[in-house]
Amino acid sequence: MKNIRWTVGRRIAAITAIGLIVTTLVAVVAWTSAFAVEEDADTTKAHTDARSLYQSLDTRSSELKVSALKSLVADDPAALEADVADDTATVAELIAGLKGLDLDADDQQLVGEVEDAFADYTASIAAFVQAAAEDQAGQRARADEIQTANDAMDVVLSGAVEDIGADADSTSQNLMDTASGMRMTVLVVAVLGLLLLTGLATAISRSLVRPLRAAIDALEVFAQGDLTQRLPETASGCTGDLQKAFNRSAENVSGIVGTVSSSAVAVAAASEELSASSQQIAAG
C-alpha cells in the first residue's frame, strides 16, 4: 500500500469502488433472499391449494353418501348411478390436481393414501347404488354400511386436511421468517457498507485536507520571511508532489536570497575599497 501512488483521482476511484461493492453486495443479498422467499411462497401456495382440494374431496365424499342413501328411497334408484359416476369422475380430477402440486414426498404419499381410500369408497358406493337399483328393499337393511364407509373416509380426509394444514402454517411461518431475515440482512449489509464507505471517505478526506492545510500554514509563515520553513514529505500522490514542490521552491528561494546577500556583501566590500582608494589618490 505504501508503494501505491495515491493521487486524488485514485482516492476518488477507491471511494467509488467501495460504493459499487456495497451496492453489489446489497443487490446479491436481496436477490438471494428474494429467491428463498419465492420458494417459500410457492410451497405455501401448494399447501394452500392442497388443503382446498382436500376440502372439495370431503364435499364429494358427502355427495356420494347422499346419492347412496337416496337410492334407498328414490322412485328410480338406477338414475342415481349417473350421479355416482359424475362424483367419481370429479374425485379423480381432484386427486389428479393434488398429484400435480409441488408437494414433498410425505405429502405425495398422503395423496396416494387418500386416492386408495377413495377408490375403495367410490367402488363401494357404486356397488351399493347398483344393488339398490336391483333390490331396493333389500338394500335398506344395509344403510348403516354407507355411514360406516363415509365415517372411515372422513377419518382419512380429516387427517389429510390436518396434516396439510399444519404444513401450510409451517411454510407460512417460514415465509414470514425468511422475509424478515431478508430485510434484516439487507439492512445489516447496507449499514456496514455505509460505515465502511464513510470511514474510507473520511480517511481519504483527511489524507487530502491535512497536507493541504499544512502547506497553506507553511506558505503563510514563508510569506512572513521565515525561509527555513519546510514540509514533511510523508504524503503520496498529488499532495506528496505538493510537499516536494514546496520544499524545492523554498530551497531555491533560500538559495537565491543567500546568493543575493553574498553579492550584496561583496559589492559593499568593493565599494569600501574603491572609496579608500579614492581618498588615497585625493590625498596625493
TrEMBL record:
GO terms for molecular function: transmembrane signaling receptor activity. Residues 206-258 form the HAMP domain. Keywords: Chemotaxis, Membrane, Transmembrane, Transmembrane helix. SUPFAM superfamilies: HAMP domain-like. The keyword Membrane applies. The chain crosses the membrane at residues 12-37, 184-204. It comes from the Bacteria. GO terms for cellular component: plasma membrane. Pfam families: HAMP (PF00672). InterPro entries: HAMP_dom (IPR003660), MCP_chemotaxis (IPR051310). One of its GO terms (biological process) is signal transduction. The keyword Nucleus does not apply. PANTHER family: METHYL-ACCEPTING CHEMOTAXIS PROTEIN 3, PROTEIN ICFG. Belongs to the methyl-accepting chemotaxis (MCP) protein family. This is HAMP domain-containing protein.
